[in-house]
Amino acid sequence: MNLDLANKVIIVTGDSKGIGEGIVKVLATENAIPVIVGRNETDNLEMLAAIDNQGFQVVAELTRPGECENAIKKIAEKFRRIDGLVNNGYINDAVELENGNYEKFVASLHKNLVGYYLITHHAVPYLKQSKGPIVNIGSKTVETVQGNTAAYVSANGGRNALTREWAVELLNYEIRVNEVVVTQSSSLSKTFKNRAQEVTSIAEKIPFQTKMTTPEEVGKMVAFLLSARSSHTTGQIIPIDGGYVDLDERF
Fold first, then answer.
1. What is the pTM assigned to this prediction?
2. Is the pLDDT of residue 234 over 80?
3. Tens-place pLDDT, residues 214-233
4. Dihedral (C-alpha) 31, 37, 41, 42: value to the nearest 10 degrees?
5. What domains lie within the chain, and their CATH numbers?
6. Cα–Cα distance between 72 and 37 in angstroms, integer?
7. C-alpha–C-alpha distance, residues 57 and 74, integer Å
8. Distances from the Cα of 198 to the Cαs of 98, 150, 188, in angstroms?
9. What element of type H or E holds 179?
10. Torsion angle of alpha carbons 168, 170, 173, 179, nearest 10°?
11. From 117, 152, 173, 244, the catalytic residue
12. 13: part of which helix (H) or strand (E)?
């Protein structure tokens, strides 16, 4: 796409597979320097190998403040700058109201929301220097809900709120903050018990091209929002879903 991201140091947090993999691969094709921050070193290294080691990786559990702080320090020590941040770590862990409990609910908020705050908090001083943008990854469940996912939906609502709050807080530093909402991705479908049946059922309901969104398609939007081509876009929550939520009148 030639988005002028060459040699930009872009952090991508969370799972280095699925959506994270799509983002990292698109950034690599743009000749950026993707920095993978995730809890599993093996997965991180496999992702780096997939892009011919055109990047860097740091092992960190995003729910732990100290590990988030140390991850940012390692990245800053190596590159002396951070040019952008993608918050991507989340898991739909099915912590519900009736059969859930306090401990599981709070743990889910840490996995799905607090980690976004922690890594961003420590990255902001470097993003201020570079005027580097932030892109959060969210889920359509905050719009459509799902049932039996009270904690996950709460965290997604929090991500939407933080995206807009940070966009306002960081205006004076010219840091843009946006969110890409993943509605139905082919990578997320791996969690279904009857995968083939579920994928077909959902794809048939997606208005545009009746197909699941690919991780690469998500990655392309993320790369655009990280680039100067979206220089006057901030505080936006943008669904990548083939019209699944807004256009299908059956829901």
1. 0.89
2. yes
3. 899 999 999 999 999 999 99
4. -50
5. 9-240 (3.40.50.720)
6. 9
7. 10
8. 26, 22, 11
9. strand 177-182
10. -90
11. 152
12. strand 9-13
